[in-house]
Design brief:
Blueprint lengths: L7 H11 L6 H10 L2 H16 L2 E5 L1 E4 L29 H10 L7 E4 L9 H14 L4 E4 L2 H10 L4 H11 L3 E2 L9 H8 L5 H13 L3 E8 L5 H18 L2 E8 L15 H14 L5 E2 L3 H4 L1 H7 L6 E4 L7 H5 L10 H9 L4 E5 L5 E4 L3 E5 L5 E5 L3
Parallel strand pairs: 1-9, 1-10, 2-3, 3-4, 5-6, 6-7, 7-8
Antiparallel strand pairs: 10-11, 12-13
Helix pairs in contact: 2-10, 2-11, 3-11, 4-5, 5-7, 6-7, 6-9, 7-9, 9-10
The structure holds ligand V47 and iron/sulfur cluster.
Length: 387
């Protein structure tokens, strides 16, 4: 790939990427600052297609958000202020959460994602109990639960080491960790936007320990607020180094800061073009992360489709409206429901190949040769194409 205009520094980065050479933090910042959007898309798409071809993964999951009250006060979060106005908040009982699991008994979901605010009464013993009962009700369901922030709090309060606490939860049924709570690792920016919760090294240490115990995890970045490009690269650099050590991360999920109903509402949101550029740089920089995910409820469907040309190869799940975090923060999708058919068509419409996966990216159904038709009860059925 020869660049017109001849910027030698950018050309060197292009050559590195094409030769599978790792780019440096300085290169990463230069991509953000100097590279055209077409170039970023072409490079990221090259990597994406080398690794995954046109395959675009999704999974069928549902969320449990045990509470939207939280002892922490992250300024970007639409949950955090609610602890002072408890009438607006919810705290679920164990039975209510188990009822949610029961309500999915005859639905083809493979994963439950548990994530929420942090409360003292929802402690390690409470969640271990919940995990055991979910495991009993749904032995096949993959339980992805608790951000490092939630884990740090409940394990500290239980006076255990991270290894002991994580092993205890794993024994109770926890399969993997979601990527939340990472926000931005730079200590100054972190202090400014979420200074009272688990620090960056602790976040990384908890994921390292989970990987050592054989659990996989994801990682997020919260971008588009007061951070600079150098902060984003620093964040990815810390993740890339840990991944070199453990290989335990599955997916990187950039989360765009949304500005409604929180203490950072005065900040404008970044543009769709910036979102696409950010996906591309993430795909290029994180050369040891297998997957980059666009979280469609947050992004909206059209931008999620476009992101597939900018390094993204996963669009998360066919979740129903069981997640509230993003709709409360002003996400594109106020009621994020998409049927399998909608999701498959969203992917097909941009000429990519829809594949349903489980949490660990084993292929469950390749939808290339599957069509949808109305079944006898009026519901949509997936049928193999017959020549
Ligand atoms: O850590 C909170 C984010 C995260 C806002 O692992 C906000 O598969 C934008 O991590 N604007 C929690 N983002 C959710 C999360 C997640 C989501 C989907 C999939 C996975 C996965 C993980 O939500 C928090 C925080 O970064 N968040 N408020 C906001 N105003
Ligand atoms: Fe609590 Fe998480 Fe919101 Fe921070 S982002 S206030 S830890 S729910």
């Amino acid at each position: 790939m020869q660049l017109a205009g001849g910027d030698m520094n950018l050309q060197k980065i292009v050559n590195k990427v094409l030769q599978h050479e790792r780019i440096s933090p300085e290169d990463g910042v230069m991509l953000y600052e100097k590279a055209g959007t077409g170039l970023l898309g072409a490079l990221a798409n090259h990597i994406r297609e080398e690794r995954h071809g046109d395959t675009t993964y999704f999974n069928r999951n549902f969320h449990i958000e045990p509470t939207n009250l939280c002892v922490f006060s992250c300024k970007f979060c639409s949950y955090s202020r609610l602890i002072k106005q408890q009438d607006e908040g919810w705290v679920m009982t164990k039975e209510q959460m188990l009822d949610i699991v029961r309500s999915y008994a005859d639905k083809p979901v493979t994963e439950v994602h548990i994530v929420g605010g942090v409360l003292p009464q929802m402690n390690l013993a409470f969640f271990a109990d919940l995990l055991r009962e979910i495991r009993q009700l749904a032995p096949q369901l993959h339980i992805k639960g608790y951000t490092a922030v939630e884990l740090e709090y409940m394990i500290r309060k239980a006076k255990m080491s991270y290894r002991e606490g994580l092993a205890f939860l794993q024994e109770a049924g926890l399969d993997s960790l979601p990527g939340g709570g990472a926000e931005i690792f730079d200590e100054e920016i972190r202090a400014e936007i979420c200074g009272d919760k688990c620090d960056s090294n602790t976040w990384l240490e908890i994921h390292r320990t989970a990987h050592e115990l054989g659990m996989h995890s994801n990682a997020t970045i919260l971008y588009g607020h007061i951070e600079t490009y150098a902060h984003r690269i620093d964040h990815m650099e810390r993740l890339r180094s840990l991944q070199d050590e453990t290989g335990g991360f599955n997916t990187f999920i950039p989360l765009k800061f949304r500005n409604q109903n929180n203490q950072m509402s005065h900040l404008p949101e970044v543009s769709a073009v910036e979102d696409l550029r950010n996906y591309a740089v993430s795909r290029i920089y994180l050369d040891n992360f297998p997957h980059i995910k666009a979280y469609w409820p947050m992004l909206g469907r059209q931008l999620a489709q476009l992101s597939l040309d900018f390094g993204v190869n996963d669009v998360d799940g066919t979740i129903d409206d069981s997640t509230k975090i993003y709709s409360m923060a002003g996400a594109e999708e106020q009621s994020p429901v998409m049927s399998t058919r909608d999701l498959v068509e969203m992917i097909r419409n941009v000429r990519r190949k829809p594949v349903e996966r489980d949490t660990l990216y084993h292929t469950l159904t390749d939808y290339t040769d599957i069509e949808f038709a109305e079944g006898p009860d009026g519901a949509m059925m997936a049928l193999p194409v017959v020549d």
